[in-house]
Amino acid sequence: MWPVTKCNWRFVVSGAGGGGNDVQWCFSQVKGAIDDDVAEADIISTVEFNHSGELLATGDKGGRVVIFQQETENKSQSQFRSEYNVYSTFQSHEPEFDYLKSLEIEEKINKIRWLPQKNAAQFLLSTNDKTIKLWKISERDKRPEGYNLKEEDGRYRDAATITTLRVPVFRPMDLMVEASPRRVFANAHTYHINSISVNSDNETYLSADDLRINLWHLEITDRSFNIVDIKPANMEELTEVITAAEFHPHQCNTFVYSSSKGTIRLCDMRASALCDKHSKLFEEPEDPSNRSFFSEIISSISDVKFSHNGRYMMTRDYLSVKIWDLNMENRPVETYQVHEYLRSKLCSLYENDCIFDKFECCWNGNDSVVMTGSYNNFFRMLDRSQRRDVTLEASRESCKPRQVLKPRRVCAGGKRKKDEISVDSLDFNKKILHTAWHPQENIIAVATTNNLYIFQEKVN
Amino acid sequence: MISTMECAVDAQSLISISLRKIHNSRTQRGGIKLHKNLLVSYVLRNARQVYMNEKYAEIYRMQQYEEVMTVCNEIQELNPLDLVEDCEEQTGDCCGSVSESASLCGALLPVSHQAPSVQHIQPSSACSVPLALQNEEVCKSPDPSFYRSCCAEAYPVSNCDFSPVNNMHCNKTTVLDLDTHVVTTVENGYLHQDCCASLQQCCQGAQSPAKKRKLDFGYYVSEIEEVPDFTPCKRAKFEDSSYACTEPLDTSNISNLISIFGSGFTGLVSRQADLEQALNGQFCSKQALASLGAWTRAIVAF
């Protein structure tokens, strides 16, 4: 039984839900500096479409947020491809210093989450390790002119020189997009914030750090409620941390959080104020034949995402993507290997710290395909409906407009076929950690280290 | 599965890599990352368990050799003092690399035939066990049938309990000073040089065979920093009849930072107060109990 198709395809899509192997992906745009010398501040740390898909936000290590806007499509031309252009750029977070603990607080944007649009303005939440901010992005395309008491440049006029009165009027001006911080939610997290998630009630949101999850009201900044606390009484007994958390897309009382031990807990806020006791525990027993020094690391979940229909959730650990049915706790309903060829390389990946990379994952609009990133600027599309997968690459070499992306193959061992890449040739510095899928269309945003690639479905 | 020899070597390098990571994390921008350090501590614990299991297997094999020696002594009815000393010396010397003991064990398997030549065995390696890792917590009882075979086989890792709950009581603390990189053990309030053996605890397997040993023997393990020359091992006599004990294996002569990684973060906060009291200046040739502040600061930051 497939989820109800809610998407609104602009182009005819072949296949049951589309988005997977039936879809051919073409290069559309790339944003960011071309040179290979990457400034650390430019490293993209989060990517998120808003609810309509019209806006695409990125956050970087330097604390900046860049928002791209899709051009208004021209429906008369079926081949028209709408492009994303810079809409607004602002500095969301600055580096801070905690004097009490002698700790520097990074300005890196860990997550951005859009609020559903209620009026002309757009709102998003952005967070670094310690502080969440609510930003209002609004347009101004007219300004008042003809004040009586002020000059045009703002200087006050001498009252004695005023001889007539006039009514100020609005005159059109060049579009200006302003971003202003409307709320600052600070001082609620001792540990590093890894997730924020807006509730479907549009009034509250949660923020999660390594050991605690707090519930906020969007209007109230001086108070938050702690709803999960897994800090042990004795820190020496610590065995797991929270790695991600998300509200259910429709049930405002339900949220999940994943742990470094590979478990996911679903909590119901109606059950009690403090949700330390989970309602459901999703856990798959470990395969003892795969036991290694690094078993704990690779089972740590780096991302958890509900499906749009709210019936499934997806988790990403180091080597695989798992789809869970919310009604079945003892094992996932689907498991996809992202880059199983890395299993024999875990020792090297541990040495160079790559094993700690936190890959994200995302659903397409109708939950039929999931996407996640890998190394060598590869990313993987996993088609659930057709049980097929494809590996694509985000590279400057495939940057011609509407150039179709060719599937890539990694040769795990033995003879390398033509067009295959051997595992040892993979560039582990080129990693795709953050990806996003347009909520309705087959448009994807893929972030390499400092570039943002936008791919669209091929139009015939 | 990881073979014994490979995992022994890999475990050591993993341990040093992990320690380096923890050390570096103290100076990283943004503060110590709890998640990453927790994962590194799991690798440390796994590596230590594997390494200790390997060491335990070695010790047990050597123990087997000793028993064989006893039998051969009794058979030969030679001057007990001479042969015992020879055997002790050679036994102590053979606690070296696994390959060495394996060959010795292999040589001894047909005991009755080779007994006369035992005393002529000249192991070439000293007790150059690399800076081994202390094992207060022992694996679940090793399969006795495995240890009967003296030759090194791939260690049945499934016997190992990787569960973080396997946290035996710890009556000693080992610290690694991350600034000077020296390791010190404090046991029961006394500072030990790593190479000295509390021999009553030495080689007591978790489940020793039912045989009782009447022979005293010495067991000496040096640290990796010492030149592996062929120094006769210190030996001490100890009471026999303790073999059937079920105490956890306490090779107290081996220092180990990882001893404080009981489960998860257990033990990361060192017992600094105890250690400072315990400083009595004994046997501090290579090790010095440097200030633990550097190490504990990392944890106190949480």
From TrEMBL, chain A:
Keywords assigned by UniProt, alphabetized: Repeat, WD repeat
A GO MF term: protein phosphatase regulator activity
Q: Where is the signal peptide?
A: none
* Highest taxon in the source lineage: Eukaryota
**GO cellular component entries:** protein phosphatase type 2A complex
Q: Which PROSITE patterns does the record match to this protein?
A: PR55_1, PR55_2
Q: Which SMART domains did the record assign?
A: WD40
Per the database entry, which stretches of residues form a coiled coil? none
Entry's InterPro entries? PP2A_PR55, PP2A_PR55_CS, WD40/YVTN_repeat-like_dom_sf, WD40_repeat_dom_sf, WD40_rpt
Similarity-based family = Belongs to the phosphatase 2A regulatory subunit B family.
Q: Can you state the subunit structure given in the record?
A: PP2A consists of a common heterodimeric core enzyme, composed of a 36 kDa catalytic subunit (subunit C) and a 65 kDa constant regulatory subunit (PR65 or subunit A), that associates with a variety of regulatory subunits.
Name the chain's protein: Serine/threonine-protein phosphatase 2A 55 kDa regulatory subunit B
Q: Which organism is it from?
A: Carassius auratus (Goldfish)
Q: What is the lineage of its organism?
A: Eukaryota, Metazoa, Chordata, Craniata, Vertebrata
Tell me the gene name: LOC113109709
UniProtKB/TrEMBL annotation, chain B:
One Pfam family per UniProt: IER
The UniProt family comment states: Belongs to the IER family.
Put simply, this protein is called Immediate early response gene 5-like protein
Organism of provenance: Carassius auratus
Its lineage opens with: Eukaryota, Metazoa, Chordata, Craniata, Vertebrata
**What is the gene called?**
LOC113075474
